[in-house]
Amino acid sequence: MTTTTLSTPFHSHLLLSAPSTHLQTPSIVALHGFKVSPYYKAHNVSWSAKPNGIFQSHKRNIYCAINMAAWQSGDPEKLNLDLLVNKARKLWENSPQPVKTFPWNRALENFIQLVLNLFLAVVKYLSVPLLVVSSLSEMSYQTTLELSPLLQNAEVPWHLIAIAIVFALLKLPAAFPNQIKANFFRRFLPDKDHSFLDRHKDTLSFHVEIDNLVKGASVPALVSLTCSFLHIFNKNLPEFFEDHMKEWMGEFKKYLTTIYPALESSSDGLGVVDELKAAVCENISLYMEVNNEEFQGYLNDFALAVWTLLGNVSQSSACDRLAVTAIKFLTTVSTSVHYTLFSGEGVIPQICQSIVIPNVRLRDEDEELFEMNYGEFIRRDMEGSDIDTKRRIACELLKGIATNYKQKVTEIVPVLIQTLLSSFAANPVGNWKDKDCAIYLVVSLATKKAGGASFSSDFVDVQSFFTPVIVPELQGQDVNAFPMLKAGALIFFTMFWSQIPKPLAFQLFPDLFRFLGAESNVVHSYAASCLEKLFLVKDEGERARYDSADITPYLPVLMTNLFNAMKFPESKENQYLMKFAKIQKNPIFNHYLFESVAVLVRRACQRDPSLISPFEASILPSLQMILQNDVTEFLPYAFQLLAQLVELNQPSIAPNYMEIFKLLLIPESWKRSSNVPALVRLLQAFLQKVPHEISQEGRLARVIGIFNMLVSSPSSDEHGFYVLNTVIDNLEYGVIDPYVTHIWNALFVRVQNNCTVKFVKSLVIFMSLFLVKHGPAALVDTMNTTSAYDNQNNCGAVLDTKS
């Protein structure tokens, strides 16, 4: 036999160099069923491809070794893949057992299935809208032809109309995402068609096997699959999942108990692991709600796993979601038919000590939120937006247990509270968080009475708790010491006001007024909210518990502290302070209060003009605060007081007033009809005191614009004439001459369109004033040059109105 080397169509430098493997000639073509090209037949090249048994697993063929040899006589480079195959064989033999048993064929099938699913999804989402748009376009076209055959040749963009309808329909269900989602999956994923469900389960199993192979490698994918379980089948679990519950429950339990050292060593990896475990807790809670009987066999194992998990969860805010979902699962168990899980001796006390108290206790993150973002802290603490925080959910767990074990919880909670208070008493400076924890427990476990206006507590006696625990915090001399304790005491007072006797509560009013001056935004906000609640309290017969005789002695210090509180950083627009300031407990009292101030200012300053400056120094800051915060109820009074101060001033007024005058010229200031009379009086005061300022910087044009706006409406036309008459009376003719034509046009248009008796009277007064100030010639000439003036028609309209 001779050895033959044949040329190949590839350059030798592109091939791997290896010791040559020689074949005997004549070469035999053996490709095991594959077609052979004429090139290889003509040159007698032998190819051989065969499966190698050592690479076969006991289930499937996952690898196939191909031995190839090709050579050419005289070519210095010889191609031989035997060495590469030998290396691959050795690598396989030395691989760990999980690599050999891993279902590589199944992985390939999943990958191909994912690609096909993606392709089908693209086709579906491209073709379905086109089909819908085409159908709607044809339907709308045919319908309009039936209604009106004249539209047959009209160039109407039916396709655009159809597209608009589609997008409108797509936007409409946005308000009902859960219902739409549930209906979608009930329609397109029926229980009898398990193809999607099988793929979902297989994909999960695939990633589980990858995770077994390389610990933590598939955790992100497992998170997505576990979350999709909750979102897709929320409240509507198909029978398929009931039939495969054992498989799912086994995997879920494994996720809760598995430790991933490689991932948990970094904060990002720990976050992914916590997300996976949180998703599992949500899923098993869903099972508890929907399939509580079927879940009973797995309950003890999961409860133990969640219990252990909570014992190891960090107190860091990054782990809050995991802690919250785990506690929610225990809460769901406590209120379900499986509540007997908590009946064991010492279980409830251990829950209180191991879960409730550690999660209710304040953390550094809570203190930072209290100081840096008081608005968010108040929304969580006072307005109830903390439903998904560890503090709130821990108390909800205790409430859930009390649903079936109220007697036990009633015995345990007072002991816990007393222990916390004793710890505080032993070291008030170091253990102040224990007292805060005790107060928060009482507040969070409170229940609303019938009607929802007041609260009560089934676990402590409110009055017995209030006097020794809350009152010392409220009567503390330093309102800035331990501000979070002060805030907790104010919340307690605000919540349990109905159970605090009036004499005791009334004694604390001066202390509440002091807290308005606390530096903490949360503390003075809580003080304002507490005062608001107390001032609105009504006893039987709708009688106010605290009447004007109770409040009047404290009114000066109350108003002073309230306005001073708005000077603190970030409290200039404090909604809780303004809400208290805007209490309409007694509108008549508010009216007479401002009337009294106005009378005092007018009488005192008329007798002694030197008092104007002291009054301005004391009143202007409060009035400016009302304007800046847009206190609707007090705006008319503020404008009237400002008008009075401007009227009392000499013609040269302070620059502060001119800033207020700029505010008058803004159209938005005139949108509220209730403010118009007071604004007109203030504008008249400026026109009378500083007419030379009005004619500068285009201000007169804005004043004429205000007149035009007012006179065009029958409800405000008389106020427009007040402004116009003041302009005519205080400004020279040369200043107003450019605007006279516009004024007559506005008046005559109104005469033609909507001439009323009130308008005619005001018009006659204006014409008389114009006549006296500038003479009959100016009156006639300016009227004749007006485009809207028609002597016969306008006079006829006026006469008809008067008759």
Structure, briefly:
With 803 residues, the protein is mostly helical. The protein contains 39 helices and 8 strands.
Comma- or semicolon-separated keywords:
disordered N terminus, mainly alpha, 803 residues, two-stranded antiparallel sheet
Describe the structure.
- This protein has 803 residues and is mainly α.
- Among the domains are: 90 residues, no CATH class; 72 residues; 114 residues.
- It contains 39 helices and eight strands.
- The protein has a two-stranded antiparallel ribbon.
- Strand 7 and strand 8 form a beta hairpin.
- The longest helix has 44 residues.
- The termini are far apart.
- GO terms for molecular function: nuclear export signal receptor activity; small GTPase binding.
Number-wise, the strands total 8
Task: Quote the beta fraction.
Answer: under 5%
Distance between the termini: 137 Å
| Outline type | extended
Largest sheet: spatial strand order: 1-2
Radius of gyration: 42 Å
Summarize the main sheet: 2 strands, antiparallel
Please bin the fraction of helical residues.
55-70%
Total helical segments: 39
Mean pLDDT: 74
